[in-house]
């Protein structure tokens, strides 16, 4: 049988309200922490893996083109030296 004591009823209401308040504070703290981490990481200018791989491929092509041009210049200089 339930108690009709108003002090116990008030204590139960207070405990329920405190539980709800603590749950709300926990959700708010978690949300604030997530936002702070997003802000901190957002300022670091990370690139995606796709962007990194694309730039890496471009650098490899540029290196290969540079080596091909260096070989061509060397061949032209050798041909010019032989004609003289």
Average pLDDT taken over every residue = 89
Largest sheet: none
User: What is the helix content?
Assistant: over 70%
Note the beta-strand portion: under 5%
Q: Radius of gyration, rounded?
A: 36 Å
Q: Uncertain regions: pLDDT < 50 for 5+ in a row? A: none
- Counting helices, strands and paired strands, the structural category is mainly alpha
Order of helices and strands: HH
Instruction: Characterize the overall form.
Output: rod-shaped
Keywords:
single chain, 84 residues, mainly alpha, 2 domains, 2 helices
In short:
The protein contains two helices and no strands.
Question: What does this protein structure show overall?
Answer:
The chain is mainly α and 84 residues long. It has helices at residues 6-42, 49-83. It is built from two helices and no strands.
List the helices and strands and how they pair.
Blueprint: H1 6-42, H2 49-83
């Amino acid at each position: 049988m339930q108690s009709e004591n108003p002090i116990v009823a008030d204590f139960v209401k207070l405990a329920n309200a405190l539980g709800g308040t603590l749950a709300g504070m926990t959700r708010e703290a978690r949300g604030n922490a997530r936002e702070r981490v997003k802000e901190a990481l957002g300022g670091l200018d990370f690139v995606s893996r796709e962007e990194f791989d694309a730039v890496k491929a471009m650098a490899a092509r540029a290196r290969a083109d540079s080596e091909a041009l260096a070989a061509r210049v060397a061949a032209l200089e050798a041909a010019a030296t032989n004609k003289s």
